[in-house]
Structures are given as structure tokens and as C-alpha cells.
Amino acid sequence: MGAIGPQSFYFAQNKTVTDSQTNGITLYLFERFDNKKPYSFHSECELAAPPYINQQLDANKNPHDVCIFPLRLKIGIPITFDETELEHNIILKQKIARKLTDKQLSELEKKNNSTPEKKKTGKQVSAYKRDQFVIEYALRRAKDNCQLCLERGPFKKKDGSYFLEVHHIIWLSKGGTDTWDNVVALCPNCHRKIHILIDIKDINKLTIKAKQKLSNN
Ligand SMILES: [Zn+2]
Ligand SMILES: [Zn+2]
């Protein structure tokens, strides 16, 4: 904390975080998707390892010492989301995702999935928390066509693309990951079919499609 000049573990809020294991303070992680938007509550967290100093560029582009606090989320604690705010964040992330080039999208998706937090909470991804980059990746890769029946999506959306649903081959509820290689884009009929019949031939077909990278198409 502190945008300019050296930071110290013993100053103000940094001290509070440094001592958080002994001072009885509860840490909460907030995230903000846009500088003008308010912070939204993410989760209760705790220090995962001792804080350390790292050199980074400050707001004036001068190298300065930065206090790094390795945090981990306290899993299992009920999170009360303001759904309107969350919905807003999802729409915002969707808009950002749509504007990215294929290369940027692939890189962001990869980066997002290599963060330890993601792996740890991977099984708990709910309908609300599904990664918009993964969804955008799957839709873009499908190029408007259902990846099972190969027909075009049933109707055109306002943005000009055809409606398809993103399906997780190994369901999130069964421990599947919210990553590009576990998702495909399906028309609503095929989506129902795959969930009701759970046909191994269809699953195998889709698994091959899910392994194709965006740039390979
Ligand atoms: Zn279909
Ligand atoms: Zn599905």
C-alpha cells in the first residue's frame, strides 16, 4: 500500500496486515473491475506466508520497494454477494473480453487459470463466477456453429453473433475445470441432449473439439 516512495511493513495499514495473525483483525479481499466503480466484496482471507519486499515501478515510474502480502482465501465461509454489483461486473468483464484480440484472449485465459487461487476454488465455481474469458473463448472458437450438430445457433443476438450455450464437458459439479479445454459451445437442443443422454460418443467428439486452441482454427 502506498503509490509513490518506499513502503514499509511497519507503517499504517501495512502494519495491520503484517500483524493480522496476532492482532485479531479480520482481512477481507475486495476487488474492483474499473477505477470508477466501487469495490465489491470477494471473500475473507488470511496471510498465507510471511510478507516480503519486492521492487516494482511506482506511479511515477520510479523503482520502489513494495510490500507483498501473500493472501489466501478462507474457503467455506459463506460469501454474501450483492448480485446486482456482481451482475454488473460480469457484464463489464464480458465487454472487455469481446474487445480482446484472439491472442490477448488466449493469454489472459491461460494466465487466469494458472493462478493458485483459481485452482483452489476451481471446484466451487458457481454459475455466477464462471469466467467470462473462458465463455468468450469457447464462443469465438465455435464461430457461431454448435460443436455437436454443427448447425448455426438458433438466432442472431444483438451483437451480431449467433446464440450458443457454453457447456463444460466434465461438469463443474463433478470437479471439471472452468478452462478453455473443458468447454464447448452448443445449441440449446444439443446442450439438453448431452445433459440428458450423457452419450459417450458425443462426449468424446466434444472432448476433441475442446482441445483445439483458438489460433489453430
Ligand atoms: Zn447442436
Ligand atoms: Zn452444460
TrEMBL record:
Quote the InterPro entries the UniProt record gives. Answer: HNH (IPR002711), HNH_nuc (IPR003615)
Provide the HNH nuclease domain boundaries. 135-192
Which GO molecular function terms does the record list?
endonuclease activity; nucleic acid binding; zinc ion binding
- The name this protein goes by in its record: HNH nuclease domain-containing protein
